[in-house]
Design the sequence.
């Protein structure tokens, strides 16, 4: 482990983030889009932990703790929203949800 | 050259993430997501953040993804998404390569990030509460002193989320009836 | 000692939550549950009062830079006394409500409201910093709003609750500005730290004036006094508890607590406006036919006297008078409630009469409390009111004159009330068939009115000194000798003239107000409708025009230029170049634009 530098971890985190972002941009299934969002969040936490480890302070790691907590709450509410949406509209394809256009 | 374990888990994480983004089937996507999260957890372990690694596996790969799978099966959205128009694919590819290049530039070629190596493993416990350690005790110490108010707020947020979910699912039921 | 305070403060919160969550339908259980809590608190407060000893206890909740915000108790002599007065009066009013609200369907909500009010007011009493005071201050405003609007399906109750709430907000705006100013000037909100500060040249006048704004609203001082009389739309126990005994006293208590921060100019203003309002409100009480409204004006007059005492630099006398007033005014309101209950919800005094025989217990206590109200020697009100008038006499003749008018007016309206309600003969069907109230209602009145009006000496000489209040009533011998002092002579004269005159004067007519017959114009002036008219004029012709002007600016600049122009212009330009509509209702399209915007911002930040 001693041979990795901060840049390695940041590049990994950045690529994960970009992959998640691409998913958000191209996918149409809201559930998959939501998972991609979570992936972006995980990438951000990875960067935080890396900074925390290389700066030898605890604060970044504690922030990750909070991110995980908030993400859990957010997933619960988001999925409930998606389920409510599905019950009302019968679909979770984002292209079909364009009532606000007009 | 970074060590083998890092490269292995980095490749695993990126591959799994690719599977998540590209798979047509939502369940396969979820499997990819689980694998990617486990990969991130492994990176946490490599970064000596053992507690966070365990938390990541328990909360994300465990609870959150099970929830996702439940919803996927509940909604049964098995209808194929159909082929993507070439424009969407082009936007996706362009976004990925451009932004990926941006990441590499920012973190590698620009030279803004110092190339110092990680150095020795941090101590297991330190007198200084702000120092990075490998134990869960340091988390407890900081969470209940410096970050007490955020901790309370986070707890309250969980309660709010709980109430919100209950009310959301209740409304939907009434609408259906 | 601090653990007593934990119990005192959080027991009512628990009771409120429990009633609101589980006892909404079980009104009877909620009533007794809440009452038992109130009596427990009263017992604990008495224990605290008799034990004595100051308490400081503080826990820091958050720290932003040098600014520390926390939750804590500061229990000094005033706080101990106030704690006892509030909890003791409130306990008996709870008991009274059990009887009074017997037939109400929303008893669970009502008693939960009473409990949350207890929590808020006790929080103000024990708070050790300005921010905590402010938070509980707002809670008091909320619970008062909720209780005034108890009969929310009646238009007048809904309107009165809104009026009370909004008027209080006007005062609270000044209060919170004062807190912000204090924080920016001294970096602390803690009372004890502020007290030790002693800044060069004293505390600024503006700071004192801003803090006084909160007092103006909550204690219904001129010109924010208009809400108090309308607040009588709530159930009578609420009027007794909140709008006579405790909530309005909170302002006086708070001013006593921050008295060291008030500059001399602020104090002078407070003394003059307090004395003026005392005289005005006392006279206005003469032209009210609703028994509760008349009492409300009486409360205004007493609040004016307390404000005057604060302004004269005698916060100890203000607190003493507040304690005495709490007892006898609560008794008066509860007596009025009993009368209203007995007369089948008739509130018009002109339609009552002759109730002395039909409701002897209520009548006796009401009269005893009235004597206390008029400061008859050796009744509770005498000990504090005469001392304030005397302090005014030493200080300033104009204030003394105003207070003398107030004293005369007090005796006049008290005499009128007794003459109209209890003496003479019944003037309506309802008064004809009046009946005495059940024991849950009479017992509190007897305790609060009879015992405490007559035992005012005990109160002034034994119980209140137990709180170690700096100055208390003088010993009895000195008091008796003192009867020849100017203040006492004025008081006695007012008593003889006013009380006797009113009893005689209002005996002339039946079912009509004698003053209205004699001089309709004076009567109309005293009905005090013109203040509302003044506010209406101000809001219609000044405030609304200003608001419309600002709304126009908002529409033109913010909405028109800043938002619509950008929101409409950018897509139009982009749409022109891409050749199609920008808003296609596709989530992914919007996501792409969000990403591009974020990248632009990131580039901007990195390149800088």
Sequence:
């Amino acid at each position: 482990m001693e041979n990795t530098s901060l840049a390695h971890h940041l590049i990994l985190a950045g690529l994960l983030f970009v992959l998640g972002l691409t998913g958000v941009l191209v996918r149409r299934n809201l559930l998959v889009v939501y998972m991609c969002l979570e992936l972006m969040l995980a990438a951000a936490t990875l960067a935080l932990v890396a900074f925390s480890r290389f700066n030898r302070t605890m604060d970044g790691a504690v922030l990750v703790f909070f991110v995980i907590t908030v993400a859990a709450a957010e997933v619960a509410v988001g999925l409930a929203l998606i389920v409510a949406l599905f019950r009302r509209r019968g679909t979770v394809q984002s292209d079909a949800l364009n009532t606000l256009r007009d | 050259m970074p060590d083998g374990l890092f490269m292995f888990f980095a490749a695993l994480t990126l591959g799994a993430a690719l599977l998540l983004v590209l798979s047509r089937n939502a369940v396969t996507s979820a499997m990819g997501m689980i694998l990617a999260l486990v990969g991130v957890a492994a990176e946490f372990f490599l970064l000596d953040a053992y507690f966070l690694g365990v938390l990541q596996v328990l909360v994300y790969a465990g609870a959150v993804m099970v929830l996702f799978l439940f919803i996927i099966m509940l909604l049964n959205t098995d209808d194929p998404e159909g082929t993507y128009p070439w424009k969407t694919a082009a936007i996706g590819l362009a976004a990925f390569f451009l932004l990926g290049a941006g990441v590499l530039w920012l973190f590698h070629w620009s030279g803004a990030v110092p190339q110092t190596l990680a150095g020795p493993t941090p101590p297991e416990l330190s007198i200084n509460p702000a120092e990075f350690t490998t134990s869960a005790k340091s988390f407890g110490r900081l969470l209940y002193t410096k970050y007490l108010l955020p901790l309370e707020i986070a707890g309250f947020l969980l309660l709010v989320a709980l109430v919100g979910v209950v009310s959301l699912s209740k409304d939907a039921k009434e609408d259906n009836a | 000692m601090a653990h007593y305070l934990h119990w005192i403060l959080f027991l009512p919160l628990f009771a409120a939550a429990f009633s609101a969550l589980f006892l909404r339908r079980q009104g009877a259980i909620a009533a007794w549950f809440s009452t038992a809590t109130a009596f427990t608190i009263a017992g604990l407060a008495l224990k605290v009062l008799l034990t004595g000893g100051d308490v400081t206890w503080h826990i820091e909740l958050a720290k932003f830079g040098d600014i520390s915000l926390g939750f804590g108790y500061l229990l000094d002599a005033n706080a101990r006394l106030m704690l006892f007065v509030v909890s003791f009066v409130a306990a008996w009013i709870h008991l009274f409500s059990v009887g009074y609200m017997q037939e109400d369907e929303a008893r669970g909500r009502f008693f939960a409201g009473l409990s949350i009010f207890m929590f808020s007011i006790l929080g103000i009493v024990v708070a050790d910093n300005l921010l905590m005071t402010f938070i509980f201050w707002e809670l008091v405003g909320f619970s008062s709003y909720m209780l005034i609007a108890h009969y929310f399906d009646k238009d007048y109750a809904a309107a009165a609750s809104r009026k009370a709430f909004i008027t209080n907000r006007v005062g609270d705006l000044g209060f919170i500005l004062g807190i912000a100013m204090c924080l920016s000037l001294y970096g602390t909100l803690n009372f004890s730290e502020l007290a030790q500060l002693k800044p060069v040249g004293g505390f600024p006048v503006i700071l004192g004036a801003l803090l006084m704004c909160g007092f103006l609203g909550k204690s219904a001082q001129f010109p924010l006094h208009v809400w108090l009389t309308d607040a009588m739309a709530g159930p009578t126990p609420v009027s007794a508890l909140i709008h006579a005994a405790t909530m309005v006293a909170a302002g006086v208590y708070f001013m006593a607590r921050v008295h060291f921060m008030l500059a001399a100019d602020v104090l002078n203003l407070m003394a003059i406006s307090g004395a003026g309002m005392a005289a005005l409100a006392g006279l206005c009480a003469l032209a009210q036919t609703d028994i509760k409204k008349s009492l409300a004006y009486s409360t205004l007059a007493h609040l004016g006297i307390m404000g005057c005492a604060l302004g004269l630099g005698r916060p100890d006398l203000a607190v003493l008078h507040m304690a005495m007033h709490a007892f006898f005014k609560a008794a008066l309101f509860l007596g009025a409630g009993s009368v209203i209950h007995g007369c089948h919800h008739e509130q018009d005094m002109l339609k009552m009469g002759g109730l002395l025989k039909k409701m002897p217990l209520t009548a006796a206590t009401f009269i005893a409390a009235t004597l206390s109200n008029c400061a008859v020697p050796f009744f509770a009100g005498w000990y504090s009111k005469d001392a304030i008038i005397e302090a005014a006499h030493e200080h300033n003749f104009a204030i003394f004159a105003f207070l003398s008018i107030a004293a005369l007016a007090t005796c006049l309206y008290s005499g009128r009330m007794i003459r109209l309600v209890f003496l003479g003969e019944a003037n309506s069907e309802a008064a004809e068939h009046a009946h005495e109230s059940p024991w849950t209602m009479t017992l509190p009145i007897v305790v609060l009115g009879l015992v405490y009006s007559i035992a005012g000496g005990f109160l002034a000489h034994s119980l209140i000194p137990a709180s170690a209040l700096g100055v208390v009533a003088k010993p009895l011998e000195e008091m008796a000798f003192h009867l020849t002092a100017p203040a006492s002579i004025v008081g006695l004269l007012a008593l003889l003239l006013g009380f006797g005159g009113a009893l005689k004067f209002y005996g002339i007519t039946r079912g009509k107000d004698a003053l209205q017959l004699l001089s309709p114009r004076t009567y109309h002036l005293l009905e005090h409708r013109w203040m509302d008219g003044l506010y209406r004029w101000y809001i219609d012709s000044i405030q609304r025009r200003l608001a419309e002007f600002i709304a126009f600016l908002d529409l033109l600049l913010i909405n028109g230029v800043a938002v619509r122009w950008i929101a409409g212009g950018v897509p139009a330009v982009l749409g022109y170049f891409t050749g199609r509509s920008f808003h296609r209702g596709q989530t992914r399209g919007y996501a792409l634009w969000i990403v591009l915007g974020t990248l632009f911002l990131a580039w901007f930040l990195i390149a800088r």
Notes: Confidence is low (pLDDT under 50) at residues 468-473 of chain C. The radius of gyration of chain C is 27 Å. Residues 530-578 of chain C form the longest helix (49 residues).
